[in-house]
């Protein structure tokens, strides 16, 4: 498959922002003189105080510091809304498509302005000001975007928690950033099913105790009945009636935090990734324009949830900074039928469509029929994100969904990177199915071997980035040392992505997946350590080890090896109980797919679990276990193989 090249079609080049020669020239300029390049492109947003300094960054161990445009002042909400009012006040900013196909609406930039100002005033009346953290636990409704932008307008820092996380996960994130205000909805609605968001907030606060959260603002989505704590809880519509729709946008320093987003790592609790104002917005907006080749008037749809970074950068901030029309979808790909995505494309004449490989794979199973009964003539560019897209899914996306007319931009990036780092550009880059291709402007990928030696030419190794780009995360909230330790200590002086990759003779990058103890389930990151600590908290569990294994739809599935306490019997009932336990503890995305009860785990004589062996057995590839001579008890391996769960 590596040999296959899909050349840039003449139609992709026509009217595109850049062709191949322009890409090469701009890329060269961006890495040879970052100050000049970003000094110019930093002006794509409006500054209340213009910057005079551009790049001030160091990846040096012990002194990691990342600042862009540091003496400038601006406001993200101003850039996403106010500056468009004169030229496109009556243009649609957000198309909202409800879970129910009969429900949708258009929100103009002028309406967005009024709504965001109202939400900001509701927050301000509750004491929220610059630097305060506000936790959002929201369904995919326009109020989620209003709340994000309202925080940005005040200089407050939002921390969104995906609606699929459990009350316990929500509680630890509220505590992690000490939010006094939580914005939620009565219930969410997905695939016709209700999600008890407010009840989950109540449970989270119960766990935290009453002295942290002072206000819970509840948007009415379903109208379902929820408990309202007097003095603490207020319905948003009632609070909004009390305020005006005028609220000035607070100018903040370029390095003022815009948001915190928790993400899983290989160890410990999820980290609060901090993104700041100026560099983040410049980078999100610029990548949105070039990677999707966004053009004036295009209808752009990213199917992510605002609970993930993709929703932050490519549903809300990047598109709105560009004055784009961005579609926000409340539902799921399979409701009411598996044609839903394509029906929405036709209904709203979507030009650019951005989704995850797992969604493509789940729809592939239903064949071409549900796709082909729709027109999709409006589509021009297709995007993929979240995990490597396997060539079979790529071909289906390209041939069936895009009718061989639309380029696929396979965008590689991370919560930490703020925006896309490696991706084709539609008018410029010949495509190879399965490759994220070439770096974006200003991005310097470096391949290193296990010893940290920088590799040249075609190679396979660990993917690092040699220098800073404006959208990079700045720190781990409240723990700068952990930031340095996690990303800059493995290969001192470089940002280590945690991903393995291959670079081919054309300089194209092929991401092969995580090389750390992070697994990628349906494009969502999960730390194996988190699932393990949840499992061992169960009273019947003595020890647990969790690894990923190849899963036809999810990309990776969660495989748990569980050792029970003496006297406990492992059976299907207990398997179910453990799945329910983990779902309740972390959330449905952490549900183990396979559980193997194991009398012992393979350990070195010093007691370290040999995950390499566990991964191989979970992959059903035990013929190649490698060296097992350092095991304390080699016999446990035979039992593990004997009772493996992943059999064809
Ligand atoms: C990890 C980051 C960034 C948005 C969604 C995920 C994997 C992401 C690709 C891609 C191969 C990809 C990597 C990365 N990943 N996009 N196009 N090709 N792998 O964000 O939760 O921070 O996860 O997702 O392994 O490290 P995230």
UniProtKB/TrEMBL annotation:
GO terms for molecular function: acetate-CoA ligase activity. It catalyses: acetate + ATP + CoA = acetyl-CoA + AMP + diphosphate. Mg(2+) binds at residues 536, 538, 541. CDD domains: ACS (cd05966). Pfam families: ACAS_N, AMP-binding, AMP-binding_C. Its EC number is 6.2.1.1. Its cofactor is Mg(2+). ATP binds at residues 386-388, 410-415, 499, 514, 525. Residues 23-80 form the Acetyl-coenzyme A synthetase N-terminal domain. CoA binds at residues 190-193, 310, 522, 583. Keywords: Acetylation, ATP-binding, Ligase, Magnesium, Metal-binding, Nucleotide-binding. Residues 82-468 form the AMP-dependent synthetase/ligase domain. Catalyzes the conversion of acetate into acetyl-CoA (AcCoA), an essential intermediate at the junction of anabolic and catabolic pathways. AcsA undergoes a two-step reaction. In the first half reaction, AcsA combines acetate with ATP to form acetyl-adenylate (AcAMP) intermediate. In the second half reaction, it can then transfer the acetyl group from AcAMP to the sulfhydryl group of CoA, forming the product AcCoA. This is Acetyl-coenzyme A synthetase. It comes from Methylobacterium brachiatum.
């Amino acid at each position: 498959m590596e040999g296959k090249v899909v050349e840039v079609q003449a139609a992709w080049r026509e009217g595109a922002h850049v062709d191949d020669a322009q890409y090469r020239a701009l890329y060269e300029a961006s890495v040879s003189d970052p100050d000049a390049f970003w000094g110019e492109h930093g002006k794509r947003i409006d500054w209340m105080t213009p910057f005079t300094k551009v790049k001030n960054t160091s990846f040096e161990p012990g002194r990691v510091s990342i600042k862009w445009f540091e003496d400038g002042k601006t406001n993200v909400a101003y850039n996403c809304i106010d500056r468009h009012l004169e030229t496109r006040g009556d243009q649609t900013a957000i198309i909202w498509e409800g879970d129910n196909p009969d429900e949708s609406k258009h929100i103009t930039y002028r309406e967005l302005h009024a709504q965001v100002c109202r939400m900001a005033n509701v927050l301000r009346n509750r004491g929220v000001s610059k630097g305060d953290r506000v936790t959002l636990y929201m369904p995919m409704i326009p109020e989620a975007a209003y709340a994000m932008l309202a925080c940005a307008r005040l200089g407050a820092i939002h921390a969104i928690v995906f609606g699929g996380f459990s009350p316990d996960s929500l509680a630890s994130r509220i505590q992690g950033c000490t939010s006094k205000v939580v914005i939620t909805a009565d219930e969410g609605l997905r695939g016709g099913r209700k999600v008890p968001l407010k009840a989950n907030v109540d449970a989270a606060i119960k766990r935290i105790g009453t002295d942290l959260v002072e206000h819970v603002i509840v948007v009415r989505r379903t109208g379902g009945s929820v408990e309202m704590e007097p003095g603490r809880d207020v319905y948003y519509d009632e609070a909004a009636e009390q305020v005006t729709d005028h609220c000035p946008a607070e100018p903040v320093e370029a390095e003022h935090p815009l948001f915190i987003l928790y993400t899983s790592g290989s160890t410990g609790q999820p980290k609060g990734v901090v993104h700041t104002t100026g560099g983040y917005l410049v980078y999100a907006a610029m990548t949105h324009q070039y990677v999707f080749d966004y053009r004036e008037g295009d209808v752009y749809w990213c199917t992510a949830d605002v609970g993930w970074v993709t929703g932050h950068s490519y549903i809300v901030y990047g598109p709105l900074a560009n004055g784009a029309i961005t579609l926000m979808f409340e539902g799921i790909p399979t409701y009411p039928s598996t044609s839903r995505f394509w029906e929405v494309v036709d209904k709203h004449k979507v030009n650019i469509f951005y989704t995850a490989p797992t969604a493509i794979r789940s729809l592939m199973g239903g064949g071409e029929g549900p796709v082909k009964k729709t027109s999709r003539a409006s589509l021009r560019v297709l995007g993929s994100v979240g995990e490597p897209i396997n060539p079979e899914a790529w071909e289906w996306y390209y041939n069936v969904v895009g009718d061989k007319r639309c380029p696929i931009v396979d965008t590689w990036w991370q919560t930490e990177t703020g925006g896309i780092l490696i991706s084709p550009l539609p008018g410029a880059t010949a495509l190879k199915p399965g490759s994220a291709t070439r770096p974006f402007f200003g991005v310097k990928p470096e391949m290193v071997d296990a010893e940290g030696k920088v590799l040249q030419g075609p190679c396979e190794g660990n993917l690092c980035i040699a220098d800073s780009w404006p959208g990079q995360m700045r720190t781990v909230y409240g723990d700068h040392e952990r930031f340095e330790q996690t990303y800059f200590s493995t290969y001192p002086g470089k940002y280590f992505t945690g991903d393995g990759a291959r670079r081919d003779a054309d300089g194209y990058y092929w991401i092969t997946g995580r090389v750390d103890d992070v697994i990628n389930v349906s494009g969502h990151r999960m730390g194996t350590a988190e699932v393990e600590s949840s499992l061992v908290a169960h009273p019947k569990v003595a020890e647990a080890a969790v690894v990923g294994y190849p899963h036809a739809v999810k990309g990776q599935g969660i495989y748990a090896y569980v050792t029970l306490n003496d006297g406990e019997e492992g059976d299907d009932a207990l398997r179910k109980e453990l799945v329910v336990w983990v779902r309740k503890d972390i959330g449905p995305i952490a549900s183990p797919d396979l559980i193997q009860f194991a009398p012992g785990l393979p350990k070195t004589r010093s007691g370290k679990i040999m995950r390499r062996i566990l991964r191989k057995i979970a992959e059903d590839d035990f013929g190649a276990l490698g060296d097992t001579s350092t095991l304390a008890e080699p016999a446990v391996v035979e039992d593990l193989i004997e009772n493996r769960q992943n059999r064809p």
